[in-house]
Fold these 4 entries.
Entry 1:
Amino acid sequence: MKEVFLSNCEKSFIQKIISEGHRLDGRNYNDSRQLNISFGSQYGSCIVSLGETKILSQVSCEVVQPKQIRPNEGILYINVEISPMAAPQFEANRQTDLTVYLNRLLEKCYKDSKCIDLESLCIVVEEKVWSLRVDIKVLNHDGNLIECASIATLASLAHFKRPDVTRSGEKVIIHTLAEKDPIPTVLYHYPVCSTFAIFNNNILISDPSFIEESVCASNSEEGNISGGLLVVGMNQYKELCLLNLTGAAIYNSSIVHRATLSAADKCKSIVDLVKKTIISDDNLRQKRVKINFGDIITSDHVQSLSRKDLSICLKNFDHNVKSLPKDEEMMDDQSDVEIEPSKYDVVPSLPQTAEIKAKKGASNWIEISSDSEED
């Protein structure tokens, strides 16, 4: 992985505007980027976009032999892949520290929290169980990968349905979707990871962008404990499932308390959105509506390359107010100076007509449109 370096000017600029209560994209401290969840044609496939960060998640299953220590439980495996398509600093077919970091956090959040009923995945004790594999592929990296990846993992697991199984004697028959309806995955609770960036020991920012994460990471590497990243995993019941502390969060307990309170409200809204999206997707499938990822490609996606690389929102700027030219602004400031009249005065008249009258005894002439000739 190639390292991405930030200049001192970029670091000081980000820290200055955040200390003044602003962010580069115009959001407040607790505001998150727009979240969109789209499902594919198969069960368990979804694309989650958090702002410009986009992640594809796919759940698949197969029949395997269970572990000896857990003979009556299924297996859950999570795999994260980051390719050069996500960002140019990544290399193909090479595992990075960020990939290992995401894998560990997702396994702690979904395997260690026991959110999935693994016993329901058992077919024959000590012989055959279902093994669920969650493949996560980062399509575009614009910051806050862990939150977007956790939402994609949760949505794909909740949307996935495995084939029904019938056992007759020693034989195990796996039915197709045409023979029997598939069985959904049983989830006890819905955990979601929320990421917060810390600035100046007391400023907590929700859903940081890539440049904000980079500034926090560079501060912690330089030995400055005033910044850092904080990852909080909570479910809809406000139960803590994951806590990862770096930088200032290790030494300041008040920041952790504020982050958990904010993550509890944020998690509930995300879980409600995931459930609502799954219900609407089931209704479309019952109506025999074709569902694929081509529906999410709009004109905005086609013309995405025509946009600017960085969108900066100005707080005190109103796009409805037209800015005056410099000459007119100077004339407004100098109210004592009289404006000399032009050679001709344009006088409004009937619709689609114009009258231009010369001054000081010159001949008067009128331009009449074709509409007035008909009158």
Entry 2:
Amino acid sequence: MSSQVEKTKKPFDKKKWRTKKYSNKQKFQDWDERRKKAVIRDYYKELNKSGNERPLDTLNYEANNLTKQQKRQNPHKEAQERYNQIQEEKKARRLEASKKKEEIQKALEEYKQKKRLKNKKLGKKTKKGQPVMKERLELLLEKIQASVNS
């Protein structure tokens, strides 16, 4: 009995089953694998029809060797490049934020200037303390012209 290998049933892994059944990432990976296999199968069918041998295996072998060599250069260099890239992104964000802040400041200053002029015109009084209507009419005319133009 000990020479026989006892087959034990693996416990049910609900997490693995759930990802296989519902995960879009898993479904996409499965679909991608099936598509690649189908392409390779069709390629071999074409080779069999034409009577050529299978050079795809040698191509895959060479491609794997190249990717393994190019895969990992120098971890320190990669980390340095990543750090530099992050620093450049931070600098760009800071510049963008400062430009935005300057634009807001400029717009606020223009708004305050217009408001100051408007209040100055509306605040003018005659000798008897009555408001000067000429300034008020000019403001109304400007408002009407701006609404007609836009």
Entry 3:
Amino acid sequence: MLMALNRHMLHNSLLKFQQHIATSSNTFKVVASNVVANNNGLNHTNRRSSSFQQQSSSSDSEGDDTLKSNPYYSAYAEKLQDLKKKNASAYREALRRLREKQRETVDTANAAVVNTTDTVSEKIDSTETQPQAKPKRRPSQTLLVKPKTLEQVMNIELLRDKSWRDVSEIWLAYHRTRDNTLSAVIPLNQFEKFYNQSIKYPMFLLPLPRNNSGYEFIFAQFQHYQENSTSNCTVHLTPLISYQTFKENAPECMTVEYYTDLCNSDKAIEHSGSDDESCVLMRSTYDGKLLSAAEAACLVNQLRIFYGLDSGVADKEKLLKSFNEGDTTFKHSDVIALVETLSI
């Protein structure tokens, strides 16, 4: 199944972006609830202040009721009652000072609530204006997985005395009669550039023309086994709609494998002619129910074109970079527009 070994990676740019938006939305709701709560607190405090002011103009007996709600009342209640009996004038003065103290407390609370409300509002405004960037994708390193080698495909010992030209002919002939299979031979110097680009940008969307019904996007992800030197790698492809539905369990429509085994120093062909060039062997297997041979070849060529360093490098790399870095400026229509200018 697609990407079963890469669970730690972001499953898909669109899904992650939706999750990010959902998380931001919940944050806004929590912050907004706090603002409502603070405003309710402010209204409640104002009501208390108004009630206190009305009570301050009432008689001394009503003042006793006011004092009971004062946070300082319990500490001075007994002394105030004695003072009321002995000196009514002094009692009223003490009552006035307590009212002033309570008024100062209410004013301080009001200011605190207003400041908190303003701060929360500023946070909401600043959060809403910030663009919601998608998470940056990470390289698809699966170093704990043993890579598939050319020895599992064919007996490479029989190729030791062959030239690269002979090896290429044998490889192409071997796959020519196999169903739902494509093959190719790639010069090593071209593949090294291709490999380095795939390390930088391990995922991309390929627009596949579907007769006269437009394009279907195919999600492609590279699987590497080494990052610092050119080695075997595999590309897994699945329709984007399948990936969005089944995530890492989406069925693959095609797999592309690149073998560098015969280029390694310990396995290199010993009797290469002077006119030969080291090559990388590629083969692709596809689901004949989902893709035709022509459509499979189109996807292989798109991989070569988008990740190869030939003409139009700047435009292609801009798309690869924006997609893998989660840039909100990435547009599917830009990929289609570029493909329509290519000869595939």
Entry 4:
Amino acid sequence: MKQFLISFIIYSVAVLTAAKDYNGAIDKEFEEFRTLSQSKSDELRFDRYYRYEEIERFLNKLEGSNDNVKVENVGKTFEGRNIKTVTITKGDGKSRNSVFIDAGIHAREWIAPAMSLYLIDQLTDSKSNFSKLLDLMDFVIQPVVNPDGYDYTFRFFRLWRKTRSYQSIVSCRGVDANRNYDFEWSTAGASDNPCAETYHGVKPFSENETIASRDIIERIKDKCKFFLTFHSYGNYLIYPNGYTKDLPENWEDQDEVAKAGADAIEQATGTKYRYGSVSNTLYIASGASTDYAYGAAKIPIAICMELPGGGFFGFDLPASEIENTVKESIIGVQAMVETVARKYPN
């Protein structure tokens, strides 16, 4: 009995300490966000995270100031927010293959939308070396796949992952959008429990958000040679298959592209990335966007870039680390795009 009481006290102290640390970390992050968001500058900065309405305003303004940028509303979220894509081209009238990039499918991974915004910023800046990538490929970018969930993390629960749809009157809300794609849906590595973080939904493409993503992919798939999705966290460059440990038919091509990104980052900064198939490098996961892009849409290269983590939970990378992270990560993106363009010329 004495030993039980000692164990219980130790456990209770640990729980209370963890809760205190968690609350402290979140309070610190939101205070940092509140302070930085008071800036009146219209210039896109990478010392803070942006709310979704701010991202929308930035994209709309960008289209109005750049003839080579097209911003589209490609759907509505469950809660009625616009789902946007940005198409960026060289503007010389030449037909090029394309790369499709998305971010923010998991709401809590704030560094992923920040990375997509940095990429947009660099591609549209004629003084940036990265704008030269437009000589190779057109870019179609979906900066935030899951706007409802992303907004929810700012207002209520920082670690929310899923969409915000109602599954039924009595069940938990939301679907893991990255288990909701119609390729090997619900076969492994996804949950049928509506309260689970990896809940796959009642059917494939049950979510407005994944329907919008699917429609973009289907529209551009004939010219699209590279699908890239930003996530966090963990320094990984991973490709199909997720639903099985069997490698994709063209695994050597996928591996070559992922390796190019990992090598470029390591050579430039010393940061190491692991690369390989999703199931053999991380875990089994079915109904994911990379498997759909490769297996259903037949886009030859499909890679998930798990960006570096930080903070208390890994997902809450401090705002002070955004700039270093995006500047480092774009080096890998550049190397991968160049490798894909070389393997699949226009």
